[in-house]
Specification:
This protein has helices at residues 14-37, 58-68, 73-83. By secondary structure, it is mostly helical. The protein starts with 13 loop residues before the first helix and ends with a helix.
Length: 87
């Protein structure tokens, strides 16, 4: 028996119907992945990311870097002078 094309093949839309069906499947998969990963949630601009410290002034950051030993005293004093007084 030989295959015979019928007008209702792929919903009556031929290859265009097949393409639309494929696109629909891809969109459903993308939607499911976004729901599963939580990437659909949009935080307002300026919202701190979980695990990040609260906002620190430049002087506080400089003091922390000096305390951790990332910079030497000469660098600390020079940068402290550049930043100006602590607000």
């Amino acid at each position: 028996m030989m295959f015979r094309w019928e007008p209702w093949f792929m919903g009556g839309f031929g290859w265009l119907g097949g393409l639309a069906g494929l696109l629909l499947c891809v969109l459903v998969v993308v939607w499911i992945v976004r729901l599963a990963t939580g990437s659909h949630r949009q935080e307002p601009p300026g919202t701190p990311v979980a695990g990040t410290p609260p906002h620190q002034s430049p002087q506080e950051i400089l003091r922390a870097r000096f305390a951790r030993g990332e910079i030497v005293e000469a660098e600390y004093l020079r940068m402290k002078d550049l930043l100006g007084p602590d607000k």
